[in-house]
Amino acid sequence: MKKLERIFGILTIVLFWSGLIFKYQLIAGGSVLISTSLPVFVFGYLIPHYSLQRRKSITWPEQVYLILKFTTYSLVLTSAIMIIMHWAGGDTLIVISMILVACQIVFYIYMRAKGSKRFSSTINDMVVGVLVLGIFFYFENPRASKDTLYGQSLILDQYEKQNAGIESVNRLIYESIDSIEMDQDPALKEGIGKIRAVSSHFYQTYDSITRRFIYYCNTPYANDRKISDQTLYPLVLHSGVPGEAFFISMQNGSALKSAIEAYMIQVKEIVQEYNLPAGLIGVGLNVDNIRDEYGNHVDWEFIMFNNQRASLVMSNLLWIKQMALRTENTVLNGLISRVDFSEEMKFLQTLAARESQKAMSLKENEIIRIRQEQELQTLQLEQSETALQQRKVTIIFAFLGIAFVLILLVISTRAFYLKRRDNKRLALHEREILQMNDALNQRNEEIMAQNDEILAQRDEIEAQRDMVYKQKDVIERSHGEISSSIEYAKRLQASILPSPGLLKTRIRDHFVLFMPKHRVSGDFYWWTQIEDHVVITAADCTGHGVPGAFMSMLGVSMLREIVSKEYISHPGVILRRLRKEVMHALKQTGELGEQKDGMDMALVSINVETLECQYAGANNPLYLVRHGELTEFKADRMPISIHQQMDKFKTHDIQLQKGDHLYMFSDGYADQFGGPNDKKFKYKAFRQMLLDGATQPMTVQKRNLDNTFREWKGERDQVDDVVVVGLAI
Length: 729
Fold this sequence. Notes:
It is a single chain. This protein is an alpha+beta fold and 729 residues long. The chain contains 18 helices and 14 strands. The protein is elongated. It has a 5-stranded antiparallel β-sheet, covered by helices on one side. Strands 4-5-6-7-10 form a 5-stranded antiparallel β-sheet. α13 (343-496) packs across α15. The chain has helices at residues 2-24, 30-56, 60-84, 90-113, 123-140, 146-178, 186-216, 229-236, 242-249, 252-273, 300-305, 310-336, 343-496, 501-506, 545-565, 571-585, 683-693, 698-713; strands at residues 290-291, 297-298, 509-515, 523-530, 533-541, 599-607, 612-618, 622-626, 629-633, 652-655, 661-665, 673-674, 679-680, 722-728. It folds into 3 domains: 2-140; 146-340; 499-728, Phosphatase 2c, domain 1, CATH 3.60.40.10.
């Protein structure tokens, strides 16, 4: 099968490339060869190749890749044939083909990256690569038909004959002037000499540029004034756009433009000097730059020669010369018309008129000849179309015959390989059954061994289960004892917290928001009275839960000793004494690696008679809300424990007023994570909340703080203990 596949692939390449060569050399039969290559490629190569590869493919990506490859290869060759044969839809189909080729390459790279080894370069990749190479070779080397070649040769030949006629009239005028004595008007003869010199100089420059352009195109046109198909062939069908390279890149267009400008300047000077009518002087020789539709300046040489084939460039050059000859002829006629003709001049004028009439007659004859040739060409074109229709019918029947033979070949080949495949599958199935039987016997033995192992594992699991039950009972008893201990610790901590009755008699109103993270808290609040002073504090001990609760009880006990027994009400002294007692109790000496447990605290001492307030803080500030504004009193940046900075605590003196609100708190409220973005509540929002609620009763403020905290926290865990103490003066 692979051998037959390769034969048809090579046959496709031979037919396709032979057809390209035949069309390139204008040999009959090229279209038939190219058209025949399509069914040979599809039925003789692609379908057998797809069937063979499909049987090897297992996964769906492999099936998709094969379908994509089959479709792509068929469209590539079909679109190429449609374009070469000038059938409608070829351009659209070639674009679709190129897109499918890109998709196939991407899919191939993806499958190779996935580790699939089924896709390797085969003969089909080489076949399609050669076909694509042939397509681009044909596109990059376009060839015109003989009708196009003949039509362009007629255009150039017509320009040549028109220019020759005008040139002969001008030459006759010069010869006539030279043979006549014009003593009566020497200035006029001088003017004719000037126009002859100016025109001669321009024609020399023009002929030099034109001859070099023809040599640049590698055509013998310059040596053969009578254009024929063979001499015109390289000029008409020159590959690319030589006008851009020769006239733009090599600056020859600028040289020709300069020559035309100089020629027109000198001609206009002659016209002005001899007061001649402008008439048609300079028509077609305007070399001024223009503006395109976008307002950009476009040079004359760019318009005339850029992106033009050699034949069009040659037509433009001949047209420029014709305009120059007509300008020269107009100036000569203007000069001659001013002469007071003698008999001899009248004779010459009559002779010139006859020559002009003769030239016009030749031109009319030439036009008649061209019309006759066009009619002949039309007749030949109709005959060619008839022959083409007959050839198409022949090709269709040839396609049908070849397709029928190929279909029979494919059907017979497929039947043979299907039968052989079924026999192979049957033998393979028998071997698989025997192998499965052996595997089942072996599996049965393994199952029996596994059953014994499972029974042993079951006994072991039951023993482990009994052990787990015993450990569960021990853990439950331990948990009950620990819970009882923590509950007792909670009652102990609650017993050391102060009674709210003291503040009710000394402070207008207050609230305490106390929310431990666990059953017991590391945050605490405390107050007492010394004569006219009320000492109030809110503290945050290191840690939370049971360790924090121990620290809070230690802090309350020490505050009682310092304030109540030693009768100290100055906040700075209280904090300094408390720090000393904590360091002594925890044996903190500042050595590396020792515990630095302690507490942060805000403490105020208020004279209830004079409303004088003193505040000192260890890392915790004091907020004062008065007349809708919040003032923050900064705390010292050192804790109630051992620290690298052991300065005295600064005491702030504050004169309170009726309606003031004081707030002391720990960091648990502001550090709580929550909200839609799982961020901290932060002190800015906390301050704004206190400021907004300062006009409300203390019970309402406490309820708002509690509700806001729970809504912000949501289903998340509480981060730290929370205590907030609010005082209304």
